[in-house]
Amino acid sequence: MNAERSDPAVDELAPLLLHGAADDTQRATLAQLLTASSGNRRRFLEHTALHSQLAQAAKAGQFSGNPAEFFHALETPPVARPRRILKFWLPAAAAVIAACLVAIPLLPASASAALDRVIVAAKSSPDRCYQIEVLEPADPETTEARADRGRFPATNHLEGATLWLRSPGQFVLRQTLPNGETRFVGSDGNESWSRRGQGTSRVSDDPERFGGGLVAKRREIGFLDLDRQLDELKPLYQIEWLDRSNHDLWKLRGTRRSADQGGAREIELWFSPNSGLLQRMVLRQLPRGNGGPRSIALELQSTAPLPDDFFNSTHPHTTSP
Amino acid sequence: MPENLPPPDPQLAFTRLFVANQAALHGFLVSLVHDLHAADDLLQELAGRLWVKFDSYDPGRPFVAWGIGFARLVAMEWRRKQQRLPLALDEATLDQLANQAADQAGQQDERREALHECLKSLTQHQRQALHLRYQEELSVAAIARSWKRTEMAVYKVLKHAHRSLLDCMNRALSHPQS
User: What is the chain A residue with the closest CA to B165?
Assistant: First the structure.
């Protein structure tokens, strides 16, 4: 039986689509071609099958970074092993694969899918508490006190600080100042506030007033509105795998796409692969203009629910919740 | 001919069948979602669903046909959730595409063998492009930067590699003796 011939345009447009280079007009033309004839659909399916075969072969794991070895492996048909060896090998391999499939059937394969899981997990546990670690201090010229940020700018005393977060945009930061006092800075999403020890709170109806350089500007990734900013990671950062060798902790790395946008140059997300829960977030090369350290890490301490009024200026914050 | 009867251990049986057919299932998913990363994720979701339903699998029936029924559901669910699809298709065309993809899934092994042979006919440049795209997972734009060429130039190399491979594979499949 002769197969219906395909339109040569399918050979032009299908690879464009599969390699992410087709524009809207080309997509619409391809859709029309697929509606028009079974021959076009058959040829398109040959392209998608080839795309899948090449990707699967590349992911099989036995290829090195050497193109010659990659093609040698691709071009070498599977060798028929003696049945005796297969008899012992297959059950053992199958058992291992079965354990992986059954125990963790839904682990994300792509970095993008993993980020989606982290975002979903962040939204499903609204209250989180992180401890801040300064990995790289501020440049000396930016640590000088600035008149508009007071004597002790919030960004300058982050080592060991505790940060409680609730979306959208609610936070409490507890930090120890050089004079030994404890300072709380926070926002309930509507107003921001600052208080030393158990003193009187200064309150502003500008929700960013006391956040200082901690609050991300437009098209920046900071860390005080983590959920919204995780959503913005995809368009603003190139996401890739950093490490998946540890079964309990996987790592993604986001690299800022454009020098024009603000925010950290590089972001690392360390998360539990099964739950997607973000365990550690590293922000490297933060903007100098905000003052504060160049690189910090936020380590998850707790996801326990916080009192409803915890982010209000009126909450005493006398002890950890 | 029915596939090998599964051994008594259902987990082992499932794993054997899934591993043996996952390339065909992945290919089927790619044919409907047109995105490799999405297909990778959906394949894992599919594995979980098939395992849950494995009690209802009839070993006298080809596993790939059974799996494709679920893969179709998974792919359609994914398409419904997307705000912007790689390729928007009307329902009738999508059904026709899925039916033809299901029919072609059985040829997976023959096509893979043909691919082994046909890769030898590629030029060095085409080989390098495929290596960077599939093994290194570089985007067309990243390859273009690395080669100091335009994206369209890289795309043309990939397109010619695809066409050359498909034409060679189809010749090999229509004349298996030669």
Answer: A50
pTM of the predicted structure, to 2 decimals: 0.51
**In chain B, which residue's Cα lies nearest the Cα of A25?**
B87
CB contact under 8 A, A19 and B47: no
Interacting residues of A210 by C-beta distance below 8 A, sequence separation 6+: A154, A185, A186, A187, A192, A193, A194, A202, A204
Domains identified in chain A, total number: 2
At residue A161, φ and ψ (nearest 5 deg) are -70, 155
CATH number of the domain enclosing B162: 1.10.10.10
Q: Is A5 on the interface with B (CB under 8 A)?
A: no
Taking CB atoms and an 8 Å cut-off, how many pairs form between chains A and B?
Answer: 178
pLDDT tens profile B35-94: 988 898 888 788 878 888 888 999 888 999 999 999 999 999 999 998 889 999 999 999
Q: Does A120 touch chain B (CB under 8 A)?
A: no
Nearest residue to B66 (alpha-carbon basis) of B11, B21, B15, B7? B21
> Which domain does B62 fall in, by range?
1-111
Percent helix, strand, coil in chain A (nearest 5)? 35, 25, 40
Partner B, chain A 180-219, Cβ-Cβ below 8 Å: none
The verdict on A46 and A128 lying in the same domain is no
CB-based contact A76 B136, cutoff 8 Å: no
Round to whole Å and give the CA distance between A6 and A304. Answer: 60
Q: Do B119 and A74 touch (CB under 8 A)?
A: yes
Choose the closest CB to B162 out of A15, A41, A105: A15
DSSP H/E element including A245: strand A237-246
Per-residue pLDDT tens digits for A82-98: 333 333 334 444 444 44
Is B77 found in the same domain as B19? yes
Alpha-carbon gap, residue B125 to B131, rounded angstroms: 10
ipTM, 2 dp: 0.92
> B51 vs A102: CB contact, 8 Å cut-off?
yes
